[in-house]
Amino acid sequence: MDKIANLTCDRPVSLTQVSHKYRAKLYLLSLTTPPKATGKVITPVSVGSSKDVDIAVDAAKKAFKTSWGLKVPGSVRGKLLYKLAELLERDIDEFAALESLDVGKCKVYARAKAGDIRHCIDVFRYYAGWADKVQGKTIETSEDKFAYTRHEPYGVVMMLSWKFGPALATGNTIVLKPSEITPLTALRLADLVIEAGFPPGVVNIVNGHGPVVGQAISEHPLIDKVAFTGSTLVGRKVLKASSESNLKVVTLELGGKSPSIIFDDADLEQAIKWASQGIFSNMGQSCVAGSRIFVQEGIYDQFLTKFTDLTKRLAAATGDPFDVGTLHGPQVSQLQFDVIWFPCYDLLASLMSPIQRVMSYIESGKQDGATVHTGGVRHGAEGYFIQPTLFTNTRPEMKIVQEEIFGPVGVVIKFKTEEEVIEAANKSSYGLACHVFSQNISRALRVAHALEAGSAWVNCAQWTDKAVPFGGYKQSGIGRELGEYALET
């Protein structure tokens, strides 16, 4: 645990890794990243500006034209990506600790290490294998003509994790803005990029706030592709900035309000286990969270009783992510926890707009007449803890049924027929994922096909794989990540 102790310091964290150099901040501003369990500061992190973005883009453009892109064979790009995966695996304990400290993930060495960091390593290795297999085609036209296609990298792009691997494998250079709420693992990864041997300027990390650094990236005329993960509200801003600048290609992975549909013939114990993971994993802070739980009337009472018991056990095991036995941790920030005001992601960053977050959604559900079946309050007096919460007796038009909460709040809804639940599940502006539970595989697949969602899990939940494409329908996004599909987008 020595590494963990070294992470809880009060020294500044470097602002920007550009062309293998850590730059001093241009503006005397900083943000702080607090441990989510206490709300106290881990460390101040310097904030970048649009000038930093310009410098990073220039470095990335230079690298693309001289030492990366099609100047470097795919086999070499693959070796470097594989080396990066090896280094990340070597330092997996440190990254898992950082992730738990910064994000608040509970069971740090079970969830962060075996889950998120391990998955990131697997993704890097997967795309290292693809780097020398990106091929065009020859096309038969006539005997006096030779036609062929060649797959070429975009150039300068903005990506990380699922996006990072395919971007580097195909020869793009990267300007990355990590979340200002959770920047530590991305900043630490910059050291491994250097150690792995990537040429200067291939990977550039600019920390900062969305209305400044994010806006500058979205509007930058020399950035050819942006891949954004976040809210639908901000996704619209990114798409708008692209249309008003250089029409850069945009991939969006946005919000969700995923249904979990549990039929009478489901394996009840398995359905309860997976439905709990579907909504309460990472404290509900997942774009694919199964926050609308539809249960067929024949097992509704039995399911609700057992599901409530499991939810209360999670609540009883709420605590510090580093404590042994913790099953439910804190929300990622004060912003996510409560209702506060912050600048809109817009050119006019001084304009303020109210954003409703987890506790205010819970209050909205109460005021709209829904029943708080369990939870519905904060846990303790310190940190950003919210008890796992279940609502019943809801109506379709309620905000807690229609809007993404991004917290440990689910609604349990009774249904009668297959046709009824398909209609209810599809009555959403989102379409990222769905979960179907039934031992009748014909029905399970029929329903999964009928649901308007980009990913469908049958008799499980939130089980992604590096080789399987991921992305949404409707207002849940544009484009696909993971698998071979990501190489095309």
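(the above was protein one; protein two follows)
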Amino acid sequence: MGSINNLVGLVFVPAPLPGHLVSTIEFARHLLARDDRFSITILIVKPPFGPPPTSPPHESNNIRLVMLPEVEPPPAHLLHECIEQYVSEYTTSHKPHIKDAVLNAATSVPTAAMFFDFFAMLTMDVAKELGIPGYLFYTSGAGVLGLTLHVSDRYDRLGADHDHPFSASDADEIVPTFVNPFPPRFIPKFLHTKLGYKAFVNLARRFREAKGFVVNTFDELEPHAVESLRHDARNPPVYTVGPILDLAGQSHVKTHKEEHERIVGWLDGQPESSVVFLCFGSAGTMEEAQAREVAQGLINSGARFLWAVRRPQPQGKVGPPTDYTAEDLKELLPALGKVVDEGKGLICGWVPQAEVLAHKAIGGFVSHCGWNSTLESLWYGKPMAAWPMYAEQQCNSFQLVRELGLAVELRLAYDKDSGDLVVADELEKAINSLMDPDNQVRSRAEEMAVKSRKALLKSGSSFDSVGRLIDDILLSST
């Protein structure tokens, strides 16, 4: 560890969302592993729903998590109308506390740089006021970052008098970070509403004020998207630093010890590459009608399966999802019970996702294509079937299926809030394609696993990019 006189302070402002915080903490550890002169402060905004995060295991003395004082949340109705606007307003309302925390941190170690999450970009004023370089830390990929910039450019091109959102009937968009024309039906749902569109534009228009784009991807995964971002003279330097992953399995294993042993024990008894894994993220849920279709599709496919499934809160209520029990699902479709009782399937709620994806029994991953899940799946060389649920996942799915050939298509344009159902036949077809040993998606995923590891090794693309970022931070601190 460097002496106190040589320490260089960094401050991160993540969004109060689980996946964003995990990526932030892991990147902080990654920076510290490269240069022990850093003293890193991560400012924690209490989640608007759910318990506050706990300190990560093995936290370094040079990484501090600072819980910001609570503020009055936005009106509850906004959470149901546009969660993206809600999170942005809620995070931005912490701006005075962010400034106080940065000033406090600087009393012991001068702050050389600040890193802002997408949803925290309106708080980058703090960095400007204090004369500190501010970077965008983008927890999704380069393709979606390019789409975000495209939305901002579109708004500026059309003018404020034409601030209409996207419509599924619009002509395909030409987005520079995608090779193919981008159908508007794959644009995030909130961009189809005036409230969501304006909120998104207000955040995205701040991006190019940043000193750099720090993106959780690697050049070999998104070569066209990364090159497009770097080629645009309006953009600041682009640092590809991924894959940034939490492969240790988080601290949840201790609190789910029995469930962990049940899941891993069952996988240990399955043949290699025989199990299809279904999991849809920390906010992914299924109503009973959709769960019934999935259950029937699994039965029809004949594949062994591990299915992590959760039940949403009742209409109008806010809170974390709850678990279905195996008995609940057996009642929905009694034939499912026979498969589970025979040991050919397992149903759970919580799941140690990274550890499951690493297991030799897993042959494919039916995923919502959240970016953290995507990077984990590719790290272990597991092919995916794309079933996006929310946020930017439709964009990720389009890219994985149509641009990169790393996933098979289940349903790219999916809107569960409209009552849309993925039916059993669709799932059966996707699983059969996913588990086909001769499918090229499988070999591509295995190749990308090798490339993702090489990117982080000495002289790898992300290793070198992180080195350039560190050099730039240290240069600005002198």
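Reviewer note on protein two: The first strand starts at residue 8 and ends at 13.
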